Amino acid sequence: MRASTESSARPHAIWHATLQGAREGIPLLGGYIPVSLSFGLVATQAGFTTFEAAAISLLIYAGASQFLFVGMIATGAPLWLVVALTLLINARHLVYGPNLAALLPRSRHWLWLMHGLTDQVFALALTRLPALDPARRFGWFLGCALMAWAVWVVGTVVGAVAGEAVTAYWPLLGEIMPFALPALFLAMTAPRFVDLRWSLALLATIIASLALTLIGASNVAIPLGAACGALCFYAVRFSARRRA
Amino acid sequence: MSIELWIAVALSALGTLLIRVAPFLWMQRRLDQSDGPTPLPEWLAILGPLMIAAVLGVSIVPVNPNATSWLATALGLFATVLVWRRTRSLGWPVAAGVAVFGITVLSASLIA
Predict the structure, then answer these.
(1) What is the pLDDT of residues A53-99, one digit of tens each?
(2) Which of B19, B51, B103 best tests the A interface by mutation, with the highest count of A CBs <10 A?
(3) How far apart are CA A23 and CA A40, in angstroms?
(4) How many other CB atoms sit within 10 Å of the CB of residue A57?
(5) How far is CA B17 from CA A24, A171, B51, in A?
(6) What are the residues whose beta carbons fall under 8 Å from the beta carbon of B24, sequence distance 6 or more?
(7) H helices within B1-112, ranges in order?
(8) How far apart are CA B22 and CA A91, in angstroms?
(9) Interface test with A, best of B7, B94, B104, B107 (most A CBs within 10 A)
């Protein structure tokens, strides 16, 4: 079933759905706040002003590639290479939109609102949208994406202005809060362990991406990990067919 | 920042936005043009859940990897699964996982 247009929903219904999206996106902040604080701090240490750090978070809005961006600029890398590598890291987002296309209504607002489609927002949306009434999905995505985006920018500003003081005052903040992300993604992944084929593919993905991160290849861990899982998924089907 | 640097920011921002929005709009257009079942290719539909699993794998690595944080991670993930099996929700498993992780880390720092 395709989702209806967002204009068919009444304003107060969209408002409620927006609040619901913002509320359900709160666990994402456990990862967003410490990382955005760190980015603000790193950016100012690399010579960027608070305004410039905030502009990068507002406009690029992609964690790993933002760190790469300021790091490469600080080392004097050619600008074309900085832009190329930033886009290469973000290329994994290419598969996110098509997976959500059937779940979301038609709207001209997607042209700017899809800017909020991060790894975490995608994961939460793919899990939650099918369970929502189609009329509530636009509002839900609006609330979740805008709340996460706003917190990311505010966190960058706080990190740039007072990052060292915040991390010195609450030394465990940056260590405990980020655990909300693996806990959330585990709760999202758990329902997918429906049979042996999916279980093996998911485990292969988790182990591969974990291993790649441990060896320092976190920038390619998501697409390569998912590719390993997909290979496992198809390999299991072919093995089952051969036995039959 | 120099003008060249602002242009680099603008190009990175525009490229990232296009990477996110163009495939989405392309697929919605395909959906509008097809009368039958969803034209989402099977491999793409499989990649969606696997991408979430990959984000899980990446995020499992603790901020400061050491014996304590790995133990806290294992206990936190175990608590998350236990509460998820009981509630089948998203909020309570996350709260339980973070609580167990935090208690383990704080306990270890107090003992040390």
Answers:
(1) 999 999 999 877 888 788 888 878 888 988 988 888 788 888 889 99
(2) B51
(3) 25
(4) 25
(5) 24, 35, 19
(6) A96, A97, A98, A100, A101, A104, A110, A114, A117
(7) 3-33, 42-60, 67-87, 91-111
(8) 12
(9) B94
Unique residue bearing structure tokens 């890398």: A77
Cβ–Cβ under 8 Å, residues A226 and A96: no
Give the residue among A34, A238, A52, A23 at the shortest CA–CA distance from B63.
A34
Q: What is the pLDDT of residue A1?
A: 42
Query: Cβ distance A17 to A137 under 8 Å?
Result: yes
Q: What does the block give as tokens for A67? A: 């760190």
d(CA A100, CA A3): 11
Instruction: Indicate whether B45 pLDDT > 90.
Output: no
CA distance B95 to chain A (A): 8
Q: Give the model confidence (pLDDT) of A194-217 as tens digits.
A: 889 999 999 999 999 999 999 988
Closest residue by Cα to residue A59 from A109, A138, A112, A119: A112
CA A186 from chain center: how many Å?
A: 15
Q: Read off the tokens for A26.
A: 């709160």
Question: A130 in contact with B at a CB cutoff of 8 Å?
Answer: no
pLDDT of residue A28: 84
Query: A86 near B15, Cβ under 8 Å?
Result: yes
Whether the full predicted model's pTM is greater than 0.80, yes or no, is no
Closest approach of A10 to chain B, Cα-based (Å): 23
Scan for tokens 């294992």, then name that residue. B74
